[in-house]
């Protein structure tokens, strides 16, 4: 399915029945990374798995910004008239979720994995790799990670959704920043998952589905 929002077509796949759950993937991925999680979730949630702009089946763009991607999510919620929604975001999707939840009352529960609030939240070795890759490829998705996000503490403090902040013990996001996000969002819960890396419990894994169900009391 496509929703025309903010001048682009945003592709999403709708599966299941129950409370609305919007799921957004990481950089360079698409909605199919959640296929296994949706199998765990679809009997309790209506899952809206979206392709971010410039990814998957959504409209290609020459320039990417996290705030534009967050506005796409809030516009999708409005276009579909979804309320009391759960938002789950992985990596870039987590950044999008933080920005969207700070502005959108339609999101009442928020789960983010491996999100950062500025480029220095990614471990230095990865940032160096991104710089080399960008010099070689000039890919706007890589440029995005080098220059953004820029999420201020006052934005995190605006989030009123029930929030769970996740990261793997071997995540590519520095743990100090993950902890800062959880400490700054009012009432947020933090879980560092021992033995997991950035995406091992998410990409084509049912584990994240089980975590979301437990957090939402399902």
Please supply descriptive tags for the structure shown above.
218 residues; 8 helices; alpha/beta; Rossmann fold; globular
Can I get a quick summary?
The chain is of the alpha/beta class and 218 residues long. Helices cover 36% and strands 26% of the residues. A hairpin with a 2-residue loop joins strand 1 and strand 2.
Write up what this structure looks like.
With 218 residues, the chain is of the alpha/beta class. The protein has eight helices and eight strands. It has an eight-stranded mixed β-sheet. Helix 1 (35-41) runs parallel beside helix 8 (207-215), helix 2 crosses helix 3 and helix 4 (124-137) packs antiparallel against helix 5 (140-147). It is globular and about 45 Å long.
């Amino acid at each position: 399915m496509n929703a025309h929002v903010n001048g682009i077509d945003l592709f999403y796949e709708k599966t299941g029945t129950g409370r609305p759950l919007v799921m957004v993937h990481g950089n360079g991925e698409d909605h199919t990374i959640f296929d296994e999680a949706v199998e765990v979730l679809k009997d309790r949630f209506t899952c809206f798995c979206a392709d971010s702009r410039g990814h998957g089946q959504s409209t290609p763009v020459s320039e990417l910004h996290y705030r534009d991607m967050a506005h796409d999510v809030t516009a999708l919620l409005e276009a579909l008239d979804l309320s009391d929604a759960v938002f789950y975001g992985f990596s870039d999707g987590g950044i999008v979720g933080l920005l969207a939840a700070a502005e959108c009352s339609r999101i009442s529960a928020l789960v983010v994995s491996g999100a950062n609030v500025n480029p220095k939240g990614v471990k230095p070795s990865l940032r160096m790799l991104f710089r080399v890759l960008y010099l070689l490829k000039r890919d706007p998705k890589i440029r995005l990670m080098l220059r953004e996000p820029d999420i201020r503490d006052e934005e995190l403090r605006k989030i009123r959704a029930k929030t769970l902040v996740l990261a793997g013990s071997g995540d590519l996001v520095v743990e100090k920043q993950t902890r800062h996000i959880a400490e700054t969002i009012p009432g947020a819960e933090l879980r560092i998952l021992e033995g997991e890396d950035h995406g091992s419990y998410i990409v084509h894994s049912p584990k994240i589905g089980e975590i979301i169900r437990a957090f939402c009391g399902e």
